[in-house]
Amino acid sequence: MYVALYAPNGRAAALDARIARTPAARAMGFTGRTSLAPDEAILFAFPEDTRTPFTLAATGVALDLAFFDAAGRMVGAHYGARARDPRPYGAPGPYRYALEVPAGWLAAHGVGGPGTVIAWSSGGFTQPV
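and the corresponding structure tokens:
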């Protein structure tokens, strides 16, 4: 699925992401992975707002995690979450979608700050909200 992030300064970045909609797919994430392609990502979609934290305890790669509300607005992020880190990573409040990308991807593309919105082409937004 094509996912795009739009920053308020006009920067935009896109990547090909798989979507995790089911509890089993959301629990799996990048578990067991020790490497990722530069633009590899997972978009976690929850049926309602959640505060569910993420852990990288079984993930062998560092990640950026971005959290979005139901309207697609970024509500929080963690940059460079360490591989195999058992600590919980969550948003400061409720969120509906979470995006995992290789560590450094958000900053490298200039789309990881407040005001960023997410859009995707399959089963969700087709343009920035």
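(Above: one complete record from the training split.) Residues 2-120 form a domain with the Jelly Rolls fold (CATH 2.60.120.1140).
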